[in-house]
Amino acid sequence: MPRRLAFELTIAMSLMLMGGALATAHISDWSLAITGAVLMGTSLVLRPRSQAQTAAQTATMER
Predict the structure, then answer these.
(1) Which H/E stretch holds residue 34?
(2) Which side of the chain, N or C, has fewer Cβ within a 10 Å radius?
(3) pTM (2 decimals)?
(4) Burial tier of 19 (Cβ tally within 10 Å: 0-12, 13-18, 19+)
């Protein structure tokens, strides 16, 4: 796993956990946790792919 992706996932997980804890304690609403979840989702969906993965995906789509 590349360092940048690991860093992004660490930040996203921290936001989710912190937001969930604050919302559970009724200190804040769930917006911080939702922001962390969205950030994690976009980090996973838009992560860079290797050329081998791209070629395999293209070959699968052509079938």
Answers:
(1) helix 31-45
(2) C
(3) 0.68
(4) buried
User: Average pLDDT in the 50-57 region?
Assistant: 71
Tokens of 36: 């962390």
CA distances 20 to 5, 11, 25, Å, are 22, 14, 9
Neighbour count for residue 55 (Cβ, 10 Å): 11
Burial class, 60, CB count within 10 angstroms (exposed 0-12 / middle 13-18 / buried 19+): exposed
Widest pairwise Cα distance in the chain? 53
